[in-house]
Amino acid sequence: MARPLLTTQTEQEHSVQQKTVGLLVFVLRYDDLLAADSRILPPITREGAKYEVGRAPEVRPAALAGSTLLLPDPFVSRAHARLVRRRGADVLEDLGSKLGTFVNGERIEGPRALVDGDLLEIGHSLLVYRLVEPRVAVRLASLPQGIQHGPTRTLCPELASMSADLERIARTDQPVLLLAETGAGKEIAARFVHETSGRAGPFVAVDCGAIPDHLVEGELFGHRRGAFSGAVEERRGRIRSAEGGTVFLDELGNLPESAQASLLRVIQEREVTPVGGERAQKVDVRWIAATNEALFSEDSRFRADLRARLAGYVALLPPLRRRREDLGFLVADILGKTGLSSVSITKRAARALFFGELPGNIRELERALSSAAVLMGDGPIDVQHLSVVAARAASRASARAEGSAADAPPADPPTGEPQRSSSKRPTREAIEAALARTNRVQGEAARLLGVHERQLTRWMDAYGIPRAKKSSSEA
Ligand SMILES: Nc1ncnc2c1ncn2[C@@H]1O[C@H](COP(=O)(O)OP(=O)(O)OP(=O)(O)O)[C@@H](O)[C@H]1O
């Protein structure tokens, strides 16, 4: 039969997919959140090839045995589902399993072509489907347990390649600029660069948003005794304290304009003049900066020349919702710190926590799991133990009722797009809801509301809302 000239949308999607390879990642089992046995499964690359998904006879890491993908999960049927490569797409079918096969929380009734980022539930196992370029698939499939990224491993293709780049860049003296949403792991990445750099000096973190404007220069560059009222003794300043090591400028977007000019000189000249001092002092430091602001947008107030100096290597770290394949390692890392020997989670709670947006990223996951681990008693973690999920639902409902900006979805990582900003003052309740949602961290609340932190502070002052924490490290 002659092929129609016009292809259907599905066929067009498939032809796009042919340039990519589908990777199935076993992420975690709801019954054992401490297992940390996430792994990338061998990809199906040949047209018509298939594998069946079934229950492993014993508890062992998920693996392909012959043409069967064996999952170490008693809730998986012996012959549960089938994955077939058909016309360039990976198609998932349920094989009449007892508990069904779910994609993004919906039970599949017929064959379902998978798309990038799909979340699969088979029994009590969570898997993520990712589409990647063939050369990335080959590399990742040869490292099924992921690559090291700071304290944990990553299976996320984008982060894995960024992490490999960061490791190479770390050994040079190139400055690194980390762009990511709040709580997405910027400081973890900065420490990773410092630790792999081989630099003998310390890692000194400076939260540029947490220091009052008039003290920033003294804090960074140090000061002579008597340089200003209150300067009762001489201070080296953070930059000189990092001699031979790394200065991590966190929340760079909040650095006051006057300090931006002075910092530019320090980076260019590699010397620091303390406030009130006359002689410049040589410094040898590596610069890493991080921000969740759109520094590259045209209307950014940030100095372009300083940005250019700090942007030796720019890493756009993915938010947690774009790296759900790492949930298994992250969850095991976070819960490992609680000292518990076993932790499980109900399907309902797992969906509420792992399938949601998580605007506070890893920090939000960390807080949610740490408090759930306390509240669950003998377990498992259920929805009522996840106060963050309930708080978000309540805040959404109240924001909807107020018609306020607090209901806005989380922003994507800074891409150079101008940020949303609103000069219209939200209601007092919307501001309170944003503060409650972010555990009263002002920077994060401002981001939720789509405004600069200073704007939020002005609104809080106008309503008489007590000042909150500038950063989460004050928690
Ligand atoms: N791989 C990991 N394992 C366990 N916890 C992690 C991991 N990565 C990050 N975290 C935790 O998540 C939280 C946020 O990480 P981090 O401070 O690096 O994010 P950030 O992007 O710098 O946040 P902010 O924007 O608020 O400065 C921290 O409490 C950190 O300990």
Please explain how this structure is put together.
- With 475 residues, this protein is of the alpha+beta class.
- It folds into three domains: 9-144, Tumour Suppressor Smad4; 172-316, P-loop containing nucleotide triphosphate hydrolases (Rossmann fold, 3-Layer(aba) Sandwich), CATH 3.40.50.300; 322-474, no CATH class.
- The protein is built from 15 helices and 21 strands.
- Strands 2-1-12-11-8-9 form a six-stranded antiparallel sheet. The protein has a six-stranded mixed sheet with strand order 4-5-3-6-7-10.
- A hairpin with a 2-residue loop joins strand 4 (63-65) and strand 5.
- Helix 9 crosses helix 11 (361-375) and helix 12 packs antiparallel against helix 13 (428-437).
- The chain binds adenosine-5'-triphosphate.
- Residues 399-430 are annotated as: Disordered.
- GO terms for molecular function: ATP binding; sequence-specific DNA binding.
- Residues 51-108 form the FHA domain.
Keywords:
475 residues, alpha+beta, Tumour Suppressor Smad4, Rossmann fold, 6-stranded antiparallel beta sheet, 6-stranded mixed beta sheet, globular, binds adenosine-5'-triphosphate
Give the SSE map.
Elements: H1 9-17, E1 21-29, E2 39-40, E3 50-55, E4 63-65, E5 68-71, E6 81-86, E7 89-94, E8 101-103, E9 106-107, E10 112-113, E11 119-122, E12 125-132, H2 134-141, E13 147-149, E14 152-154, H3 157-170, E15 176-179, H4 186-197, E16 203-207, H5 216-221, H6 237-241, E17 246-250, H7 257-269, E18 271-272, E19 281-282, E20 286-291, H8 304-310, E21 313-316, H9 327-336, H10 347-354, H11 361-375, H12 387-402, H13 428-437, H14 442-449, H15 453-463
Parallel strand pairs: 3-5, 15-20, 15-21, 16-17, 17-20
Antiparallel strand pairs: 1-2, 1-12, 3-6, 4-5, 6-7, 7-10, 8-9, 8-11, 11-12, 13-14, 18-19
Helix pairs in contact: 3-4, 9-11, 12-13, 13-14, 14-15
The structure holds adenosine-5'-triphosphate (ATP).
